[in-house]
Amino acid sequence: MPCLFRRLLSLILVGSLTSVLLADGPFVPRRQSALPGPPLSPEEAAAKMTVPPGFSVEVVAAEPDLVNPVAMAFDDQGRIWVTESLEYPRHSPGPGRDRVKVLEDTDGDGKVDKTTIFADGLNIPSGIAVGYGGVWVANAPDILFLQDTDGDLKADKRRVVVTGFGRRDTHELPNSLTWGPDGALYGLNGVFNPSHVEQNGKTFDFTCAMFRIDPRTDEFSLFCEGTSNPWGIAFDPEGSAFVSACVIDHLWHLTETGYYHRQGGPYPPFTWKIESIVNHKHQMAAYCGIEYFDSDAYPPKYRDRLYMGNIHGACINVDEVTRDGSTYLGNPHPDFLTANDVWHMPVDQKIGPDGCLYILDWYDRYHCYQDAMARPADVDRLKGRLYRIRYKDAPRAEPFDLAKEEDEELIERLSSSNRFYRDRAQRLLSEREPSAYDMLTKLAVDPTAPRKTRLHAIWAVAGYQCPGDGFLIELVDDPDPTIRAWGIRIAGNFQVASEVLRAKIITAASDPSPDVQLQAVIAAGKIHKIPAMPTLLTALAAAGDDKLIPHIVWQNLHPLLETDSGQLFELLQDRNLATNPNVAALLPRVIDRILAAPNVETDSIIQLVKLVAETPKLHSALISSLATLAARVQSGEISGDRLAAIRSQLEPVLQPILAAGDKHPAYFDAALLAVTWKNAQAQAAVRAAYRSGDTPDDKRSAALAALVAFGDDQIVPAVRDVLLSKPPTSQQLQADSIAALGKLDQPQVATMLLDAYPQLPSDLQPKALEVLTQRVDWSTQLLAAVAAEKIAKEALNINQVGRLQESPDSEVVAKSIQVWGQIRTKRNPERELVIADMRRLLRSRDGDPHAGAAAFQKLCGQCHKIYGQGQEVGPDITTNGRGSFEQLLSSVFDPSLVIGPDYQGRLVLTADGRTLTGLMVEDNEQRVVLKLQGGKLETIPRDDVEAIRVSQLSLMPEGLEKQLSEQELIDLFAYLSLTRPPSDPNAEFIPGAQAIDVDQLHLPASLTNELATAQLSSNATKLGKGARGEAGDLAYLPNKRSFLKNSQWHEVGVGGGADLGIVSESDPVYYQATWETPVAINLITLSGAYPNQPQADAAWKIEVRSGGDWRVLDRGVGGWYDHGRYVWGAPGTAATTIDGFRVSLFSRDDQTPLRSVHFRGEEGVSWFIGNAPADVEITSD
């Protein structure tokens, strides 16, 4: 692999991306490495796209007929319905300027030639579907049903179907309205868009979820929950649902009642999350839209694949899904389309009536919502495109109107090779209700009919009424497992079944097909009189190594344990069932769930523990069950009378295990539990285990947790020995030992930690401070140590100081304010200056990414995961927060600039005097679970929670630049700036990450410098003539209109001697250039005008004027690079028009005078401002 961060003779953008002040000035969007350049015309954009051989890109519609398109749907005549949004990213609800538009090709040439505004007054309409006599539109907070009652293609009737969707995050609104195979309307909602729907006495509180609406009754329900910001639903020919999602893994198979991995935020209690179906990634990207391609308009190799819009990649990614038990596995294929144009934003993909893939393009310079939120005025509101990807001379669709076709014609359409017709014919047959019932049911059970045809016939019947019992029994008896599965699913949807059908569904729980088993599990909880618990356990036992079924069983089983745990114990008397590996693996979760019930009977717990203890095949389950019990006791969730009752009944069970000692596989875990009620034998054994270097680290940590839980008075000296042992024990054990002490309310904890602090490795010192700031007594001792300068006040991060200032003790608060001042409770806008400084530092020289990997694990890995390594407290940054070098800078040095609600820190005050900060994992009636720094979960019984406060700041503390040396920072960013681990030969830089060699920034004199025509001025009145000397770069002499290797210093004041006093930012010292006629520029280099010789603490800012307003382009403190050079822009990028440019110098604060200022160059100017073409070579001549 070539040397990373090699010195390049190229200029790349270093302008500030974090300053939201520059509303109209030059700006490089996130995920892009340079200015986006001018937009292409629709025809130019299509011609620039790369598609496989034989394919071509055709423009179907474009501006002005189509602007800011968000979603589309084809109707039964092949017309295209599109939602347009001029309001994005507006948060407030209410009427807006957005609309639904109908696009028509009236002459059959493949291009839209007629547009009609169907509805307006909308506010970010984010999803659309046509059917059941009207148009369904997601227009948060509502799902609307719009109708045209007089045939003029104008909506004259509007009804709110469902309301309660949030608008907190307007790029995560309800979206992707899609007709499902069962006839319901499906949609999605995002993780940072909390929603609250009330309907028919039911309440639905949710964030990321797939929802379902019955188009006949308007009944709303949640199909499943989880993922991130899913945007796009596709159903395969078997009716399975797939969605594409952002930030986390991109492809998910969603199943009813499932709960999937969340990007952020707390899970409901007892959730056993389901993961994605991919082990690969495409470009680091945001996904929008997904379509399962099933049409003969393309060659076979392009069919039966999922086509996904990749916004950041400006392309269409492709995955193929293959069966993996009851779920799927996604496998990557080459991109289908690459736009080669950063403005391209594919937001929706659909198969059209001609069988081709249609791609809706928002077409804007801003891919990322963060840019749109920071600069809403710059969102392009005048463009939008719709493309068709055509294979060779694939014929265009002839005119049609499916709604006018007879039932027999529509039934024939169910066998079409283009799913466009199959899907719409199915829905229309459902809308017509019983007219085609007999023909459809006959076709559905015909074994000679094509499988796809049979399924569509089944779905058409299921879409409008509950089929007859006999029909469903025929389906459940069918040889085809997919048909059997759908028979059960339909019965579950209608929640009714005869005794015969119920018996068949119960039997289906052990069907050879995992698909059938899965649907039996889901139906068991929906159909009255099906014994749910035995059916669930039967399916679990029959599931083998299926990845999905155990999760769905658990999701449906655990609510039953709230009130009927006794039934489970009776079922487990069947030893064949109890010892089944899947059932045994679930028993620890079962025990944990029963323990959480508000009125749990301890008999149920004891019976289960006895069962696993007396069954040798269940010893692994016994170990896990004892660990679960111990964890509940140690957290305080089981205490008092409940603990006493459990102890009295469990001691006889544990005694033989304890007596057997190490000969019993569950001995250690039995001892951990017995320690909590001070069993002397167990105490001795657990103390010895913690102290022994022969005990594995994980067991030593578990031993310490048990000893701390019952307040062992010998534990603090034992921890000191571990921390200071020679040779040292593992740092992970030491870290766990320090963290465990937080639960031990003893003053000697602080005394020991403070005494040991100077001898602790630097990696462990912050962990000691983390504990010392959790209790009043410890905080008092810590503040005394800081006052005595035994611990530097800079050693505490902002979260730790924040805990001191949130202390329930007023003296601790007052003393901490004395030391650190009142800390901010909101984002510090001065972080922009830090980013500017860090940008210059990190571009100044090479870094070692291998050393950076070590730095990451040491510091960042306590909360973040990358390439599978580290803790997952905050986001996994493998694909998040590193879309470009500028986004990375912002994520690291200004973590509170953009923060999702679920990543806001929580400060919890406990009844026993602890103050904890972390991210919320669970928050319910039983308990609060926080994820602390390092990934440790802290469980607090709800009764022990005094208060919970939500921080407006990220849990990630500011000030990383103070915790690492310059070289460590450079190394860390060398690592973070790669798309893959540094050992991977395919590793590349993220956009904008290459280093700049400031010694090689030389421009050829042939370039046109716009300063030649500028009016130059300054408010500096005391300019010394300075001395001429050889400069490291070429100075431009505007009065001579030439470049010169020699340059001249000019001074305001005398270096180190004069004092200009406090110079305010509102009245700075400046040099400026202005033009009567605006000039187009794409490159700025400044070889002088920097205050770091000799004063490194002066502040500066660079401004440009456009449209009469001065806007901040960049700002910082000290010099912009090691040698005073500043670069903005790059040759060949799009030009920006300005009519003014200014550099200002001023005091960084009200206590730092401006002592001297240096400007280099004849007449005070040696700047280049111009428009450099792409082929400009940067030379050293």
TrEMBL record:
SUPFAM superfamilies: ARM repeat, Cytochrome c, Soluble quinoprotein glucose dehydrogenase
Gene3D superfamilies, sorted: Cytochrome c-like domain, Leucine-rich Repeat Variant, TolB, C-terminal domain
Pfam families: DUF7133, HEAT_2
Keywords assigned by UniProt, alphabetized: Heme, Iron, Metal-binding
Keyword Cytoplasm among record annotations: no
Domain Cytochrome c: 847-980
Keyword Heme tagged: yes
GO MF entries: electron transfer activity; heme binding; metal ion binding
PANTHER family the record matches: LARGE, MULTIFUNCTIONAL SECRETED PROTEIN, LARGE, MULTIFUNCTIONAL SECRETED PROTEIN-RELATED
Name of the featured protein: Cytochrome c domain-containing protein
